[in-house]
Design brief:
Blueprint: H1 18-28, E1 35-36, H2 53-63, H3 79-90, H4 95-98, E2 102-108, H5 109-124, E3 132-137, H6 141-149, E4 153-158, E5 160-161, E6 166-167, H7 169-178, E7 184-188, H8 201-214, E8 217-222, H9 237-244, E9 249-254, E10 266-272, H10 276-293, H11 300-310, H12 312-343, H13 352-355, E11 360-362, H14 367-377, E12 379-380, E13 386-388, H15 397-409
Parallel strand pairs: 1-12, 3-4, 3-7, 7-8, 8-9
Antiparallel strand pairs: 2-10, 5-6, 9-10, 11-13
Helix pairs in contact: 2-11, 2-12, 3-11, 5-6, 7-8, 8-9, 11-12, 12-15, 14-15
The structure holds pyridoxal-5'-phosphate.
Pyridoxal-5'-phosphate binds near residues 110, 140 and 223.
Length: about 400
């Protein structure tokens, strides 16, 4: 056998992740006014990652705590973290928590929560036919891969309407109505990624009605609590409403964005069961699955978040930090909207810039316009026209608006 025929000769080269590819191109660019609006991570007004002051404080406390060691956490995570995390998303006075119906497991951030939830469903959900999950069209690209990895087939449901740059509510509802009973649908709890388009509270009520009529299961993904509106409770309304209506559900929770703990991988999976007995059985199986995948979750980030959630002063400080981030992003939305509509008088309607919520905005730019922005203005965004508002700041927003205006007019 020749030396150059390896074991993996049949492995095809996978394409690089589009977001990471975009970031690499941005980093390699030497143009002084380049802008990165591709990546979904918060940046301050100086375009720098922001370590939240409350996280610095909590880290300091941990470093000076002689009782801490590097022992393994329990398989399901740090108990004081998971219980506080459940209260954060479901509400401190949630009847489901009081009744002992919630099972919570610490996960490798939101991605790990999605994976563990998907894996659990693949093993134990009583599928009505094929194992299928409904995903919004479009959705966070990783959702497709996560469900496929565990043998659940993703099927798109209508969500975003390019004509209105808003929600295709009727299309969404008919997909729910036409699905077989007891189907599973993934719902973004708030700040839909990539569109920034969320249902209104009234629309959530109708969506919950259809879930109940059809016996559907809600797989909530909550990666942006607090980060969207600046208010932790407001961003949890959809999840809490579904729990109150007794729609069967689980929630994937991430502390990457709202605590700026991206690399620490802090998250949780909460399954709201019908009874304490059911919750206990679910927990036992989640433990078995977690054991074979990661054995024990990492401790550092969970300790930081646990300190913040369980200490009233730190919790108040965190809420202020969250407002700082959310409001900077909301201000950027207003500034961009003002520049486009009043100063540059860019053709088209730009109201969606301020009606969309969270880190991302679907600008409505087409592939040609988006590509022109990357190639000619060195403004890095994905070809679907999605921008991360966190990439904009007081220093670059004028150049951004001016370039967007030219892209729309075809004069770049
Ligand atoms: C919708 C959605 N879900 C989950 C995640 C998971 O993020 P992480 O694993 O960093 O918590 C993200 C991150 O971008 C997201 O946008």
């Amino acid at each position: 056998m020749s030396d150059d025929v390896g074991t993996w000769q049949n492995v095809p080269l996978a394409p690089p992740d589009s977001i990471f590819k975009l970031t690499a191109a941005y980093k390699a660019d030497t143009f002084a006014r380049k802008i990165n609006v591709g990546v979904g991570a918060y940046r301050d007004d100086d375009n720098k990652p922001w370590v939240l002051p409350v996280v610095k404080k909590a880290t300091e406390i941990l470093l000076n705590d002689p009782s801490l060691d590097h022992e393994y956490l329990p398989i399901t995570g740090l108990p004081e973290f998971t219980s506080a995390a459940a209260k954060l998303i479901l509400g401190a006075s949630s009847p489901a928590i009081a009744e002992g119906r919630v099972t919570s497991v610490q996960t490798i951030s939101g991605t790990g929560a999605n994976h563990l939830g998907a894996l659990f469903l693949s093993r134990f959900y009583q599928w009505n036919g094929e194992a299928i999950i409904g995903l919004s069209s479009p959705t966070w690209a990783n959702h497709h891969a996560i469900f496929k990895n565990v043998g659940i087939k993703p099927i798109d449901y209508p969500y975003y309407d390019p004509r209105t740059i808003g929600l295709d509510f009727e299309g969404f509802l008919s997909a729910l109505r036409n699905a077989v009973p007891r189907s599973v649908f993934l719902l973004h709890a708030c700040a839909h990624n990539p569109t920034g388009v969320d249902p209104t509270e009234k629309q959530w009520e109708t969506i919950a009605d259809v879930f109940l009529e059809k016996g559907h299961y809600a797989f909530f993904d909550c990666a942006y609590q607090g980060f969207a509106s600046g208010d932790l409770d407001r961003d949890a309304v959809a999840v809490r409403y579904f729990v109150q209506r007794k729609v069967p559900l689980l929630v994937c929770q991430s502390f990457a964005k709202n605590a700026g703990l991206y690399g620490e991988r802090v998250g949780a999976l909460h399954v709201v069961a019908a009874s304490p007995d059911e919750a206990a059985r679910v927990k036992s199986q989640l433990s078995v699955l977690q054991r074979s995948e990661i054995s024990n979750p990492p401790s550092h980030g969970a300790r930081i978040v646990s300190l913040i959630l369980n200490n009233p002063d730190l919790f108040e400080e965190w809420k202020r930090d969250i407002k700082t981030m959310a409001h900077r992003i909301i201000n950027m939305r207003h500034e961009l909207h003002g520049l486009l509509t009043q100063e540059f008088k860019t053709p088209g309607n730009w109201d969606h810039i301020i009606s969309q919520i969270g880190m991302f905005s679907f600008t409505g730019l087409n592939v040609v316009q988006s590509t022109a922005l990357v190639e000619k203005a060195r403004i890095y965004l994905t070809s679907n026209g999605r921008i991360s508002m966190a990439g904009l700041n007081s220093k670059n927003i004028r150049y951004f608006a001016e370039s967007l205006d030219k892209a729309v007019r075809g004069t770049l």
